[in-house]
Design goal:
271 residues; alpha/beta; TIM Barrel; 2 domains; 8 strands; 13% strand; globular; binds 3-methyl-2-oxobutanoic acid
């Protein structure tokens, strides 16, 4: 037995067993050591080092600008904070779409340099060869269908996807292809709940929903959104569990006030 194996770790197999047992899978994003540690110790099943780091960490309008190097930095930091959960790292825009050799090289860099357990990439049949090549190299792949933010300029809007028959049929074909290509799970973003139910029942690998209703096998949210760090982002699917923006603002104002009034530091806070 390895000296590192006291904690029962979540693996891709664990997630598939959870689906088989009807046990829901919890997933949240994290991009740094400190929050990854809190989230892991709270008992999350999966941490996604999402390319939403481009928005919430770097302040970009879309996920497109984040680079492989930046994703590797975020993933390395998050991995240092975890002991138990499975860590999935988003492959950023431009690192897997051109051809499957580029995709494999990018996935290998993520696995080798971060210590994460798997990668996620967006798309269906268009990226199938890349998925097969990465899976063939022994790297677990999570798929992502529906609203795929790296294609925002193709969609032109962040509205619900696959409401029309043609797009819904494509999604159904794609999810079966992803399963056959060896994906261990698939994120379904912003699609009708009835479609998410249908495809979750169609495949044996877990579906993880965001804005895809309650019938997915698990749920994912962006940590900054659910903790209320972000105030501007208010989609219907988001439940806020905290209002850190307000609490942090109050705390910082109190600190400023204490400094200005020479109340901080006091005797017991001094040497
Ligand atoms: O980058 C991300 O945070 C994601 C989730 C929205 C699923 O892909």
């Amino acid at each position: 037995m390895s000296i590192h194996s006291e904690v029962k770790k979540v693996t891709t197999n664990t997630l598939q067993k959870m689906k088989a047992k009807g046990e829901k899978i919890s997933m949240l994003t994290a991009y740094d050591y400190s929050f990854a540690k809190i989230i892991d110790q709270a008992g999350i099943d999966v941490i996604l080092v999402g390319d939403s780091a481009s928005n919430v960490m770097a302040g970009h309008e879309t996920t497109l600008p984040i680079t492989l190097e930046q994703m590797i930095y975020h993933a390395q930091s998050a991995v240092r904070g975890i002991q138990r959960c499975l860590v999935v790292v988003d492959m950023p825009f431009g690192t897997y779409q051109s051809n499957s050799d580029v995709a494999l090289a990018s996935a290998i860099r993520i696995m080798k340099e971060t210590g994460a357990h798997s990668v996620k990439l967006e798309g269906g049949i268009e990226v199938l060869e890349s998925i097969k090549k990465i899976v063939g190299a022994g790297i677990p792949v999570m798929g992502h269908l529906g609203l795929t933010p790296q294609s925002i300029y193709k969609f032109g809007t962040y509205t619900v996807r696959a409401k029309e028959l043609e797009e819904a049929e494509k999604l159904k074909n794609d999810i079966v292809l992803l399963q056959e290509a060896g994906c261990f799970a698939v994120v379904l973003e912003k699609i009708p709940s009835a479609l998410a139910k249908e495809v979750s029942e169609l495949i044996h690998i877990p579906t993880i929903g965001i804005g895809a209703g309650k019938y997915c096998d698990g749920q994912v949210l962006v940590m900054h959104d659910m903790l209320g760090i972000n105030t501007e982002f208010k989609p219907r699917f988001l439940r806020k569990y905290l209002n850190i923006h307000e609490q942090a603002t109050d705390a910082i104002k109190s600190y400023i006030n204490d400094v200005k009034n020479n109340d901080f530091p006091n005797e017991s806070e001094s040497y």
